[in-house]
Amino acid sequence: MPDELDLPEPKKKRKVGGLIATLVIGGAIGSVIGLAFAPQRGSKTRKVLKEKAGTAIKEGKKFLKTHEREISQIKTGGLEIFNDLKEKMLEDKKKK
After folding, report:
1. Distance CA 46, CA 57 (A)
2. Are 13 and 71 in contact (CB under 8 A)?
3. What is the pLDDT of residues 7-18, one digit of tens each?
């Protein structure tokens, strides 16, 4: 059985990543529930969806701009973990 990989676990980066995922998932669930219980015509629903989509895009851009540094750190941390894992896999492959 191969040795377990000892990868770093950046806690702060995981928390921000979890927050972003939670916000996206929560928004999607809220949209689906809202549509399921919408007592209005299709044309009205489409208009509301268009307005909400515009608002969501604006809020998303605002969020990205506000959290640009944290997102960059998460990306960098993820790349470091990926490269570490890649190196360990290549080393294991050479040993075989």
Report:
1. 16
2. no
3. 455 555 566 667
Q: What share of the chain is helix, strand, coil (3-state, %, to 5)?
A: 80, 0, 20
The model's pTM:
0.41
Other CB atoms closer than 10 Å to residue 74's CB: what's the count? 19
State the SS3 of 26-41.
HHHHHHHHHHHCCCCC
At 49-59, the pLDDT tens digits run 788 888 888 88
Nearest alpha-carbon partner for 78 in 15, 22, 10: 10
Identity of the residue numbered 67: H
- Distances from the Cα of 93 to the Cαs of 2, 3, 57, 59, 87, in angstroms? 11, 13, 45, 46, 10
Helix (H, G, I), strand (E, B) or coil at 3: coil
Residue pair 90/12 in contact (Cβ under 8 Å)? The answer is: no
